[in-house]
Amino acid sequence: GMAVREFSDSASISDWAQTAMSWAVNAQVLSGKGNGVLDPQGTATRAEVAQMLMNFGEHVG
User: Fold this and answer.
1) Contact between 50 and 33 (Cβ < 8 Å)
2) How far apart are CA 21 and CA 39, in angstroms?
3) How far apart are CA 61 and CA 46, in angstroms?
4) Are 35 and 5 in contact (CB under 8 A)?
5) 58 pLDDT higher than 80
6) What is the C-alpha separation between 35 and 17, in angstroms, rounded?
7) Domain locations in the chain as residue ranges
8) 1 pLDDT more than 80
9) Given CA atoms 48, 54, 59, 61 in this order, what sign does their dihedral have?
10) For residue 4, what are the CA distances in angstroms to 11, 21, 46?
């Protein structure tokens, strides 16, 4: 997977969220929205949240 700094919009991650976003990407809970984009200021759909929960269960829990 990619490191959080490799996403083209990583500079848009709020300071308070940097540690959590880095953890989520490194733990493969988040993998971005495609084309090297994380969209850290966007919203997540139900399907995206469901995928994050599945990823958490597979890679962390």
Assistant:
1) no
2) 11
3) 20
4) no
5) yes
6) 22
7) 4-59
8) no
9) positive
10) 10, 7, 22
Look at the chain and count its residues. 61
Question: Which residue, among 48, 3, 40, 49, has the nearest Cα to 23 in the 3D structure?
Answer: 3
For residue 26, give the 3-state DSSP assignment.
Answer: helix
What letter does residue 34 receive in the DSSP assignment? S
Identity of residue 48: E
pTM above 0.90, yes or no: no
Q: b/e string for 21-55 if b means 16 or more Cβ within 10 A? A: bbebbeeebbebeeeeebebeeeeeeeeeeeeeeb
Tens-digit pLDDT profile for residues 30-54: 999 999 999 999 999 999 999 999 9
Closest CA to 21 of 34, 39, 36: 39
